[in-house]
Design goal:
heterodimer; A: 333 residues; two-stranded antiparallel ribbon; globular; B: 195 residues; alpha+beta; 4-stranded antiparallel β-sheet
Chain lengths: 333, 195
């Protein structure tokens, strides 16, 4: 039976066919439509660079943390952390653990440059799962985001753009769900954090930023008197930060609606004010506090908000700047 | 709709559930958030985001460990250095990942805390590698509250006086710390060679 004949038939079959087409169109717009891979490639480079840097800070303590050279080892390690899986619960010899770690470093580098991206990302992910599973108490809340981002990027075809794989096989499109899920991950993190900030220091005294800045556990500057004198500024900033975080999911939702509508001119583009505030906030946090790799990682994921066109223009501009700098000394010589 | 497209759409949908479900309030969504969170925890993914929530810390605590040896002598252990020097500033190059474990081990001083229990057993093994294992380790906590900004602006110091509190006593010659030390001697004899 031809499609025209099928369409011509009446009854429930016709309705089902229509519903099927509508569902297909919705799925396409929301998740499956293909797009240029450049923006996702940029996110991959930025996030994997942070993951690699974070990984390298383990050097010198790998056997002590994850092998039977650790003071907590063998059956007791498995007993202490029963809810996790880890290769290092079963492979415990220090040399073997170091070898797996070295393999993981190579996998991170391949993932970063986008060569054999799929298998490299799986190996890199397995290493993080194994390290976090074997000794979860070595990792704190900022590290959680590393694990979440590592997992999401591993599942995505992140090597299809801005990669050696793309240079070899040519760029291939990626589904729009990749960037959208990264945005949703940020939205879940910010909004959950904002909603949970229910205490008096956030909503009544507005002293939360002050207390964060003076905590000797992670403060960069011992300047309680200065910060106390700046409470007139820190108080309003406290209120703004908690509302900005809480409303981040609403921003992502509006951004998604704008994208689905084809980015009409009458629909304001909120990315620059909202993400601009985020950039300033995270730079401030990074400058004032020790928060491991949290700020660089979050800012890396902000690349997901670039459209593929914007990402391509940004790369082209960067290339021009580099080419210009590279040419200058030659012309002078 | 082609089955392959439907299957493809299930991938981001499952990931979406993994991101959003654990942060949903259990009061409205019952056991679902907890079940998803437990499944994700298997591969060390945690989607609970409570940074500086409900309030940031308003006090900080360090552990102070003292070892009692079989000959009756006592000695402070390396953790106690923080009590003396940990009230200044913190930069990345001064931190180790063990600081994070110590931070967790300080939680709930009046209640059972498995992170603390395992940390103290680990200290038994570590000390056994350095010489005679202690008979017991006494853990105190030293806490300093942060002075509210209004009082600091009026001239008060940023940190209040330290308050010391007994938390627990761990016995290195009791199970399983004793077995952990014995196993460590078998597996890592070179680390127990006190020359």
């Amino acid at each position: 039976m031809t499609t025209a004949e099928r369409r011509g038939r009446g009854g429930p079959g016709r309705h089902l066919g229509r519903i099927d087409r509508i569902l297909d169109r919705i799925l396409d717009r929301v998740w499956l439509a293909p797009e240029d891979p450049t923006a996702l490639g940029l996110v991959r480079i930025a996030v994997v660079a942070v993951l690699t840097a974070s990984l390298l800070t383990h050097i010198g303590a790998v056997a002590e943390y994850f092998s039977h050279a650790s003071p907590l080892q063998g059956e007791w390690a498995r007993e202490a952390f029963p809810s996790r899986v880890s290769l290092f619960f079963w492979i415990e010899q220090p040399w073997a653990v170091r070898a797996i770690f070295a393999l993981g470093v190579v996998a991170h580098l391949l993932w970063l440059v986008g060569r054999f991206t799929g298998p490299a990302s799986v190996v890199a992910w397995l290493l993080w799962v194994s390290m976090s599973g074997r000794s979860p108490l070595l990792y704190s809340l900022p590290d959680q985001l590393q694990m979440a981002m590592c997992t999401l990027l591993m599942v995505m075809p992140s090597g299809r753009g801005v990669s050696l794989d793309a240079r070899r096989h040519g760029p291939r499109p990626v589904p729009v769900w990749c960037r959208r899920l990264l945005m949703i991950q940020l939205a879940a993190m910010y909004t959950a954090t904002g909603v949970l900030k229910s205490g008096a220091t956030w909503h009544r005294d507005h002293t939360a930023l002050y207390y964060s800045l003076v905590n000797p556990y992670n403060r960069h500057f011992d300047a309680a008197e200065l910060f106390a004198g700046l409470q007139w500024m820190l108080g309003p900033m406290t209120a703004v930060v908690v509302w900005w975080e809480t409303l981040f999911a609403a921003f992502v939702a509006l951004h998604a609606v704008r994208s689905l509508l084809g980015r009409p001119r009458w629909f304001p583009d909120l990315r620059w004010p909202v993400l601009g505030f985020g950039v300033l906030m995270h730079l401030g946090i990074q400058g004032a506090l020790y928060v491991a790799w949290f700020s660089p990682l979050v800012l890396s994921v902000y690349f997901a908000f670039l459209t593929p066109d914007e990402a391509r223009r940004a790369i082209a501009r960067t290339r021009v700047i580099f080419a210009h700098r590279h040419r200058r000394p030659r012309s002078g010589s | 709709m082609k089955p392959l497209r439907l299957l493809h759409a299930l991938v981001p949908t499952a990931l979406l559930v993994g991101i959003v479900a654990p942060v949903l309030p259990t009061a409205h969504f019952g056991p679902v958030p907890g079940a998803v969170a437990r499944a994700l925890l298997l591969v060390s993914i945690k989607q609970s985001w409570a940074m500086y929530a409900p309030d940031p810390q308003r006090a900080h605590t360090y552990m102070e460990l003292e070892a009692l040896y079989p000959d009756g002598s006592t000695a402070p252990l390396e953790e106690s250095v923080d009590v003396e020097r940990g009230w200044g500033t913190t930069w990345a190059w001064r931190k180790t990942r063990m600081d994070i474990w110590r931070f967790y081990a300080n939680f709930h001083p009046a209640r059972r805390n498995d992170n603390r229990t395992w940390y103290l057993r680990l200290v038994c093994v570590r000390e056994a590698r350095r010489g005679e294992p202690p008979r017991k380790i006494t853990m105190h906590q030293v806490k300093r509250r942060f002075t509210p900004p209004a009082k600091v602006a009026a001239g008060a110091p940023g940190l209040r006086d330290p308050v010391r509190q007994l938390v627990t006593v761990a016995y290195c010659n009791a199970s399983p710390a004793r077995e952990m030390i014995e196993a460590d001697r078998r597996l890592n004899p070179e680390l127990h060679d006190h020359g």
